[in-house]
Design goal:
- By secondary structure, this protein is α/β, with parallel strands linked by helices.
- It has a single domain, classed as Dihydrofolate Reductase, subunit A (3-Layer(aba) Sandwich).
- The protein contains 5 helices and 11 strands; from the N terminus they run E-E-H-H-E-H-E-E-E-H-E-H-E-E-E-E.
- Strands 5-6-4-3-7-1-8-11-10 form a 9-stranded mixed sheet.
- Helix 3 links the parallel strand 3 and strand 4.
Length: 206
């Protein structure tokens, strides 16, 4: 009997017109311009406001046994990677699990407080997934983004489940989910409307 293999799950907040980040991403505005004061105020407010209303979805995101993210999701390159910084998630990142960062810049693993260790993967999305599977065991793997990274995994057919958190704003431009991804067959598993976001989960069919 084969061991259970965890699911590869995408968790992504998007605007009603499909953008995961606006234009002009900076260190001060990692999610670009969305009409808020910074840090993706309008796009990601559901995670921090009315917390009890969306607690189940936030808990789902934080339950992953391993995480994959792109370099921009970790943080922009600041100066030389011989004197690296530790991203914009603080000294105690919310992941509390191994995080595999896709990058062109090799560096040693970076342990953080709270059980998070960043591993920097320079040989592509399949290598990151292989390493994440080894770290997660039979637990689930969450691809946190950004959309460019998610689109690569979707295009390669490596995603089992797509959890979208759709916010009722439009951005009109920026980084868009599904850009360059071939048509997908999706089965809707759940949907729930909260006051500031709609949570929808799809299974990605072969």
């Amino acid at each position: 009997m084969s061991a259970r293999m965890g699911k590869v799950i995408v968790n992504q907040t998007i605007s009603a017109d499909g953008y995961s980040a606006g234009l002009n991403q900076t260190e001060e505005r990692p999610f670009g311009e969305d009409g808020g004061d910074g840090w993706g105020d309008r796009l990601h407010a559901w995670m921090f406001e009315a917390g009890s209303e969306n607690k189940a979805e936030v808990d789902q995101i934080n339950a992953a046994s391993a995480v994959i993210m792109g370099r921009n999701m970790f943080g922009p390159v600041r100066g030389s990677w011989s004197r690296p910084w530790n991203g914009w998630w603080g000294d105690d990142p919310p992941f509390h699990a191994p995080v595999f960062v896709l990058t062109n810049h090799a560096r040693e693993p970076q342990p953080m407080e709270g059980g998070t260790t960043y591993h920097f993967v320079t040989d592509g999305i399949e290598s990151a997934l292989t390493q994440a599977r080894a770290a997660a065991g039979d637990g689930d793997i969450s691809i946190h983004g950004g959309a460019t990274t998610i689109n690569q995994y979707l295009a390669a057919g490596l995603v089992d489940e797509l959890r979208l958190h759709i916010v009722p704003i439009t951005l009109g431009a920026g980084t868009r989910l599904f850009e360059g991804v071939p048509p997908l067959k999706l089965e809707q598993l759940t949907s729930r409307a909260a006051s500031t976001v709609v949570h929808v989960t799809y299974r990605v069919l072969p």
